[in-house]
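Reopening this one. Same input as before:
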Amino acid sequence: MRMLSKYKGFLICAMGLLPVAATAQDQPRLIVQITVDQLRGDMPTRHLKQFGEGGFRYLLEEGIHYNNAHHTHANTETIVGHTTLATGANPAAHGMIGNLWYDREAGRTVYNIEDQDYSILTSGADVDDETEIDPTQRAATSDGRSPRTILTSTFGDELVVNTAGQAKVFGVSIKDRGAVAMAGHAGKAFWFSKAAGEFVTSSYYYDAYPDWVDAWNSKGLPQSYSDRSWELLNPVDSYLFANSNADGYKPDFAGFGRTFPHPLGSADSKYYTTFLTLSPFGDHITADFAKTLIDAEDLGDDDVTDFLAVSFSVTDYVGHFFGPSSLEAEDNLLHLDRTLADFFAYIDAEVGLDNTLIVLSSDHGAPEAPGYLASVGMPGGYVTPDAWDTAPAVERIKERFGISGPLFEGYYHPYLTLAAEVRDNPDIDRVKLETMIADELVSFEGVAYAVPSARLREGSLPDNALMQAVLNNYHPDRSGDIYLVFQPEWFINDMDGLSVTVTHGSPWRYDTFVPILFAGQGISAQKMSRRVHTIDVALTLSIVAGTRPPSGVTGEVLLEVLGQ
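Same output, byte for byte:
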């Protein structure tokens, strides 16, 4: 009996250390998860003094700011980061290993959320190959989109399950993959079609558009920016990066220009909607659509917690073309600050910030542009595989293993994939083949590591954070055969024929480093500098909402959000 009493006492003490699920009266009426695409963790604080009231300043000064937050996977791309934030799992579990991967069964490259069974409801809203600047979307063979390739549940999914379907769950973004990942399997997703100039969805979610979506599209807000230009908000000498406006390393895409002002052109011009998403106006229309959704769907109007995920994409587009330390990136962030302030004010009026929990993070960070680094005396450069003389290395490998045909299927970032005839040949020792290829690859300019998948499968990797991140990105059915890691501040800037200034997608800290900010109901201002991770967000939201954790979650609870 004494032993039992002692054991019970231990249990009570141990349970006291665990977070307690919120009661119904403690739960927020609305949870708003904001993902700012390509918002490196230092960027909000770098420009804090320039922000107005109510936007970033509200989050940074009245919320909990985790200023040492990181992704724990290696391929820091859009779908990977969004799905990680939604699921609390790494890509090894949720399966979204990259924006693209090579499907061995189909024998082709696939786009992460493509699904030929569920077409876009709007005719002519598919990707326009002539004008689409995102090469990953051009890889899709149909306009169909769904979350079926996401292999684990999301926080939104669990919220719907927990409430017997009463919770309303939505995802909104310029990018289809941003909206779909955050909405999960049980929510509804809307994204902006550049081809149609409208917000759209697929038949996975609806048989027909709700009336309010048709009404929003009919008012023509995206077209209202016709013949306008993106101009600076403030006098140029008030900007930190005022002198970057004429940097010659930035591309001049289709007349958008390297310097302010950046003209959008007329609404019927070829690249109008592309330029719209390359300017702050893209986030303006995203926020406007999200506000309309809140009102039309009565989010936060009852005691059942609803969930709205909004992904703002413009920071990513601007970062790719101009770099994160550019006048364009700085001005866009000031515009986004105003957009967030207006959005939060709307939520306060409709639902009340005291009834709303807001969390903001990012799907990935970004490196600096090599041109900018050179201007301040720092190293960096572009990896150019087309300039590599690979013929001698390929010949050595093929001779060693008796390979007569093609050695590779291709490179689909970050994986080099063997040709099917080679991969499936039972007479070839895959471990030795992949190891020899990796040994050859590290001799080429810009390559830091080449990691054979055979080593990932057998777990024979060096015990360090970088290799763990590569392992966290490995899924046996979707990953390629050799994982390439380039040197810090080195990356491929050729996006399927389109030259850009910056490309993310590495395990280096500038790509994994993102903000995590909580504000709203029950949140007291705090700044936390211990290392936390994006896989912590979904689990924390689950505790707040009193739901079951997502099925693949591996993170830790952020106790400060619970007031502990």
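So the earlier flakiness isn't reproducible anymore. For the record, Residues 1-24 have pLDDT under 50 and may be disordered.
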